[in-house]
Design brief:
Shape: globular
Order of helices and strands: HHHHHHHHHHHHHHH
Strand content: under 5%
Radius of gyration: 20 Å
Helix content: 55-70%
Structural class: mainly alpha
Number of strands: 0
Length: 329
């Protein structure tokens, strides 16, 4: 798989770091209890459901989609006040201010958001710390498409500073789902800059934090997509390279195309048809499982979605090429 920052094994994960339209408003509260033992997050494998165009063969599948819309709430907040009142006594920002910050991120007003958050640099709040790391990451990416080539040593240092912000957030609130998500994203970006060896050494760390994010919040769509993409990249790795890597580094254990597919379907359930990447990867996972009707269905959905970002455009082109190669008729 090559797209975006060409030449890196896990570029899909790195390039997804901006988290699109789905991951930025998922941490207003965390009511989902962690149902796993400490430090041993587990994802339960279930049967793979059917999709449109595929025969049920006597089995029935019920699909329910839960979509939590925050747009009207954000619009109401912004209409009432351009900048919500600031906290006076607590390091934890009020929900309406977090919504305001996330709206700035959603609309890609990164410079304004970063400037606004400078006033909160002394707050010991997990929700502030991971948001600071998130927007600074976006600003770093805006400095150039080849962020992993230009001034490599300086970039590594900058990425380590952002990762340190995430570590501080997790020290304050280990059960913060989005902090775990961004730990996975930024640790992968940092290891990618550091080279091939560091990238593979970071695989287990990345997998752990993505699984932890999902266990804390199963509706964390971005974490589901990223973990599924990680598994797909590893599964699509040539066998000889995979054997070589296993000799020197600890790889994630017991991952299958079915696991990746279930993660993509969960992300689609939470946020349907909002990510070209997730639709494309869903179709690709179905194709790997020889379920061509479903594969074709999701690839066509991916190609029908509007392009918003450069990442969307790259995934769209990849989906078109995959479709052309495997569904010529």
């Amino acid at each position: 798989m090559t797209h975006g920052y060409r030449g890196n094994l896990l570029t899909m994960i790195t390039r997804y770091a901006r988290c699109g339209k789905r991951a930025c408003t998922l941490v207003s509260s965390y009511s989902v209890k962690d149902r796993t033992q400490k430090n041993t997050p587990v994802i339960t494998r279930t049967y793979t459901p059917f999709c449109e165009g595929e025969s049920h063969s006597g089995r029935e599948h019920e699909q329910s989609s839960k979509i939590y819309w925050t747009g009207f709430l954000v619009a109401g907040i912004l209409a009432a006040s351009t900048e919500p009142e600031e906290p006076t006594t607590s390091d934890d920002l009020p929900p309406e201010l977090l919504e305001y910050l996330d709206n700035l991120y959603n609309t890609r007003q990164y410079v304004d958001l970063n400037n606004f958050m400078q006033r909160y640099t002394n707050l010991n709040s997990a929700d502030v710390l991971w948001r600071r790391a998130r927007v600074q990451w976006e600003l770093l990416k805006q400095e150039g498409q080849d962020y992993n080539v230009l001034n490599r040593k300086g970039r590594v240092s900058q990425m380590q500073e952002l990762e340190n912000l995430i570590d501080q957030a997790l020290a304050l609130d280990e059960k913060n789902s989005s902090a775990h998500l961004w730990k996975a994203i930024l640790s992968n970006a940092c290891s990618t800059l550091a080279g091939f060896k560091k990238q593979f050494q970071n695989l287990k760390t990345m997998e752990y934090h993505l699984r932890r994010a999902i266990n804390l919040d199963p509706n964390q769509a971005a974490a589901n997509t990223l973990l599924g993409s990680l598994y797909m990249n590893l599964l699509d790795m040539p066998l000889l390279i995979r054997v070589f890597v296993n000799l020197f580094w600890e790889m994630p254990e017991e991952y299958y195309y079915e696991d990746a597919l279930m993660l993509f379907l969960k992300a689609e359930e939470v946020a349907p048809k909002t990510s070209i990447e997730n639709l494309f990867m869903t179709g690709k996972a179905y194709f790997r499982l020889d379920r061509t009707p479903c594969a074709k269905h999701y690839l066509e959905l991916a190609m029908a979605q509007p392009v918003v970002t450069n990442e969307d455009q790259a995934f769209l082109e990849e989906a078109k090429q995959f479709y052309k190669t495997n569904f010529k008729s």
